[in-house]
Amino acid sequence: MPDRLCTGTVRGLKGQTVCFTGRVLVDGAWTVRSDCAKRAGQHGAIPKTDFSRKVTLVVYGDLASKVVTDDRRTYSSTLVDAEAERSQGRHICVVDADGFSNLLKERPAPCLELRSAGAGRVRPVAAATTESRILGRVLRMRRTGRRLPGDLTLDLSRLDKATAAHEATIGALIAHLSRQDIEVHTYAPGAPAFDAGWSRGDEVFVAEIKSLTGAREDQQIRLGIGQILDYTHQLRTAFPSTLIRPILVLEKPPTDARWTSLAGSVGLRLTWAPGFSGI
């Protein structure tokens, strides 16, 4: 059977063939396997009592954060079998109780790693932190090129200026935050595609960056506001206990001061290069 690709995120229960290692702590309440199976089935999953090659998702509950030994107990051998399948090239997704709770709410869940500890033992890796599920790799400024005049009938000189201005703003933002010992990241797999993100204490900041060169200012700002509010809503829905702070970053100050008060009225911080006031 060909390998099943995994992006690191389980998107839903629909179409999954799922089995459970034991009872699962669902939203603070211990839930036995039969009830978990019933609830998974209500979301389009196919529950199985035992592990088989048809299983695509394993939910482990009462074994969380423990070393699991293959001692012929059904619930413990499930993870051992899942790790064996992975080693043979067939990926089995594994989620913990929090992940299963998210899937029941039709929210994504991180697919966990399984680590072999020798002597038939498998250690399930604890769920990734919320921050790592939002923030991805370190953000770098990209190089931008320029097109020769007359390459296309479309006026690309304005587009190229906007692209260069966008990347220059990203570079300036990275430099500004680095002076505060803050590292800027791109979005994590499965997270909405915001332009830049970083954390400070318990807060996670997500930013959309808009250039104003060669474009209608009001159109760019309206687009940016809509994008960052959409991204923030998605993240707050997926991570309700995390403080998500949305920011719209502009290449330069807007000509109309009303945008600052408008942004504040919807809980959005507006800032711009080169000073990036407020961040």
Automatic annotation (TrEMBL):
It comes from the Bacteria. This is DUF91 domain-containing protein. It comes from Streptomyces griseosporeus.
